[in-house]
Amino acid sequence: MIDREIRISLIELVDSNPAVVLLGPRQVGKTTLARELEGIRPAIYLDLERPSDLAKLEDIEAYCALHRDKLIILDEIQRAPELFAPLRGIIDERRRRGQKRGQFLLLGSASVALLKQSSETLAGRVAYLEMSPVTVCEVDDHSKLWLRGGFPESYLASSHKQSMQWRQNFIRTYLERDIPQLGPRIPAETLRRFWTMLAHNQGQLFNASALARGLDVKSVTTARYLDLMVDLLLVRRLQPWVSNLGRRLVKAPKVYIRDSGLCHALLGIVTLNDILGHPVVGGSWEGFVIENILNHVPPNAQVGFYRTTGGAEIDLVIEPKPGEVWAIEIKRSSAPKVSKGFHSACEDIAPRRKFVVYNGQESYPMKGDITAVGLVGLIDQLKSL
């Protein structure tokens, strides 16, 4: 069992809102975390993929009246979007009776569709929380976390082989069952090829035309595939940092498989030696670092990357609070060096703080008012804001 940092945030939101939506990809640990609440407060859990549980909600008002003093946990809520409308009435009626918080916890593994349904129907009544795979702040073996990724069953597997088998089954299930159930009619093999192509180009600019040629489809189709993978919280689309400096900036987003273990499974990478000798090693490490950082930035932080057509580049730019911009370079080396492009980009955007995140733990100053820092050390600084 891995102690998840998000647990405290979830309890606080449940204690202060009528309804909470906990989002995250399948198997990330949402159900395990939600069921822990059953041990600390009266609660009842329903899995909406189970016909017997779904049948209990045919008359949802009567069911909720029967359990009015309990937190009702509805898992895979996107499977039953018709429930959102009656939930609004139930929440409002309970509010009138003085029950203003801790009514419903809704778990979902698709973001945009679910957010649209709940935000339109439950506006002003619901809070949102996204649950990521395991981060470097929750386990000690960061090399294993990078290799296997942060899905708990993959990370905790008894061997690299069993971990790989779990991830391959996860990918197959998404392609053959989960995505078709959500509506898109895309051949599983086509989507697997697209997903694998993204893994080969981990951390690169999204080139819809090149991907379309490889799949023998139109560019607009590959853009639609990307939208789907982003909506499912499986791929991150990192947008360019907005600048008013008049520079000619790259406009295409950078794309990352959000979980490094899934990226490695798509590429057939089983061991640490395999990844260290693979061409994607730099992009994989960069994606791993970025995902861990972005899982710890403040909720309203602005994030992106900076790149000009002239070669000035910053791997990650964040504005954790208004007016305070951080420039972050990512290096896998234990003795990092900063490129000329980073210095040039920093002259453009004038960040308040400059960091190089490297494969080490000690923090120390570098030339140009730059601080070399380990990944956990940078996250600690974000937490202290």
Written description of the protein model:
The model has no long low-confidence stretch (mean pLDDT 92). A 6-stranded mixed β-sheet has the order 8-9-10-11-13-12. Strands 2-3-4-1-5 form a 5-stranded parallel β-sheet, with helices on both faces. The protein has a two-stranded antiparallel sheet with strand order 6-7. It is globular. It has helices at residues 6-14, 30-36, 51-55, 60-66, 84-96, 112-121, 142-148, 152-155, 160-182, 188-200, 208-215, 219-231, 260-267, 272-276, 281-294, 340-349, 375-383, and strands spanning 19-23, 43-47, 71-75, 104-108, 126-130, 235-238, 254-257, 302-307, 313-321, 324-330, 353-358, 364-366, 370-374. Helix 5 links the parallel strand 3 and strand 4. With 385 residues, the chain is α/β, with parallel strands linked by helices. Helix 9 (160-182) packs across helix 13 and helix 10 (188-200) crosses helix 13. The relative contact order is 0.09. It folds into 3 domains: 6-130, 3-Layer(aba) Sandwich (Rossmann fold), CATH 3.40.50.300; 136-280, Orthogonal Bundle (Arc Repressor Mutant, subunit A), CATH 1.10.10.10; 296-385, 3-Layer(aba) Sandwich (Trna Endonuclease, Chain: A, domain 1).
Features:
385 residues, alpha/beta, Rossmann fold, Arc Repressor Mutant, subunit A, Trna Endonuclease, Chain: A, domain 1, 3 domains, six-stranded mixed β-sheet, five-stranded parallel β-sheet, 17 helices, 18% strand
